[in-house]
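PROTEIN DESIGN WORKSHEET
SECTION A - STRUCTURE
LENGTH: 119
TOKENS:
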């Protein structure tokens, strides 16, 4: 399961989160982590948790934007994020996220709770 649902969220932001969900589902840790600013608080912990998660289990990921405020440079979002982890109950949580444009690409600059991806 991979996907993003949206309402008034700009198409490039929707595509950004679609790619984020797909990278996780495809066990593409580097592709997933490329979506994050390495200066983000908790980046190293998140990277370690994601690497452990995708090494130990198949993961499905779906993201629905439930709140989105901002402009074409910075946005603050609430994401209804569903993780389907092999042999575990599904995880579903409203994740708070900030993104900022770095050149032509969006980067996640904050994510709470950071331990959502812990195996």
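SECTION B - SEQUENCE
RESIDUE ASSIGNMENT:
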């Amino acid at each position: 399961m991979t996907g993003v649902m949206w309402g008034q969220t700009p198409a490039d932001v929707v595509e950004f989160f679609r790619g984020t969900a797909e990278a996780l589902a495809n066990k593409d840790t580097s592709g997933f982590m490329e979506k994050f600013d390495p200066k983000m608080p908790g980046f190293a912990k998140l990277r370690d948790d994601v690497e452990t998660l995708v090494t130990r289990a198949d993961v499905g990921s779906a993201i629905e934007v439930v709140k989105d405020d901002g402009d074409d440079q910075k946005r603050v979002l609430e994401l209804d994020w569903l993780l389907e982890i092999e042999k575990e109950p599904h995880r579903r949580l409203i994740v708070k996220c900030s993104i900022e444009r770095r050149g032509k690409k969006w980067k996640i600059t904050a994510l709470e709770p950071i331990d959502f991806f812990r195996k």
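SECTION C - NOTES
The beta strands are 2-5, 59-70, 74-85, 91-102, 105-112.
The two ends are 18 Å apart (CA to CA).
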